[in-house]
Design a protein that fits this description.
The protein has helices at about 15-40, 40-65, 75-90, 95-120, 125-145, 145-150, 170-190, 195-205, 210-215, 220-245, 255-265, 270-290, 295-310, 315-325, 385-395, 415-420, 440-445, 450-465, 480-490, and strands at about 155, 160-165, 165, 245, 345-355, 360-370, 400-405, 410. It is α+β, with helices and mostly antiparallel strands. The longest helix has 27 residues, at about 220-245.
Length: about 500
Amino acid sequence: MNEPRVNEPRVSEPIAAQLRDQAASAILLVLLIGYSVFMAGAYDLRLLALAGCYGIAVVGYQRLFGDLGLLSLAQGAFFAIGAYAAALLNNNGIGELMLAAALAVAVAGALALLCSVILLRLGSHYLALASLAIAMLVLLGAVNLERWTGGSNGLSLSQPSTVFGVAIGGNASLAVVAWSAACIAALLYWRSGSGLKTLRRHLLRELPRAAAATGINAVAWQRGGFVFAATLAALGGALYAPVAGVVSPQVAELTLMVNLLAASVIGGRGRVSGALIGALLLVLLPELLRFAGNWYLFLWGLALLLMLILAPDGIAGALDYLLRRWIKPRWTMRHDAANSAPALADLRLEDLRKAFGGVVAVDGVALELRGGQAVVVIGPNGAGKTTLLNLVGGIQRADFGHILWAGRDITSLPVDARAILAIARTFQTSQLPIGQAALDAVACGSIESSDLAPARDQAMALLEELSIVDQAFVACEQLAPPRRRLVEIARA
């Protein structure tokens, strides 16, 4: 099979998938709003309005769970915070839904930022358990703080809600408002994660060590995703209050969180269209199965299981497979020569020591490298070469000694902070993301630009310098091993 030439550029798969997702989401949102305005009956409108509220929360969850791979079980708790905030304001004479939504988003965002300081120090299942504890605390508050929440009876809204002074008591207006807000949520999702951010987020999810080595601060990205998911959940909850008419502790139960997670997976992780499809199934499928009487829950679970088996990438993922045949985006490149040479600086190691239990891997290493030098470290297996590189790169911390870069002590700096200072490395095992073109894999390493076009220009100059420009638009997994190594060097 012939490899693409440099004058035949194609967009990397993560960006192409996002473009297809935008097209599918736009069509779906237009159809839903049009159906709500012109065709739906009263009961259908109520279901659509509920689906819109859940859809907003799932869109936010796609950033955290779908894009960053973090399993948080607190999304339903932030949804409940938004619902109770709207109900409390309504019962205190403030029926303006936009004000309630703004307050709910602010409260949820502040709480999420505070929680993220603790939660993001944990990993995998520990994060899930800790976030579940937050969800349980919110549920206990909803049940026991009767003065504000109404306890088990909940809060009934005492007056019609308004949007900019216009009453929206009808099911049609509530559905239009909910899906219009879903449009805004989708735009925020794409706006906060397009271009180079999409590529870096993909690298962070798939290859976290390589992401840190290119200067990506994982904690900052994860904190942003956590706050983003929480604020959209609160927005969905604030709109849920007038749709349901009553807010009870049921909205804070784990069942809702499980449903939001199921909607994300079944709809399609990391896709706005998947969030919308999942939310629609979450609301509409149980209603369609009511004919089965007491068996409807069994049939609902069976239907979800079949969808997971038949479409492991979600329904939106299956649709995306079909869209690939028609949407094949290309980029137009402004290839300006870019100065890709990093700033030269001196590196000094002072009495570095690193031990693993009783095994001393690095013992008293002192070394001084001048800017512009090329130095080779040789030794047999187990001599400590990789450990020395890990200490310089920040992947491991020295037990004793100091590392100075341009006269600055960087011994305690993390990997991503050292990469910003132009201390980068490659890995013995290839750390290139599947689905990205070689050019975009290199562009992820740019520390000078947050925009995709200039980062690609810089990456193209580096590929030319290494004489592999003919591989610029070849997917990383299709490269021969020697060229994969050169791409990694260019990224570093």
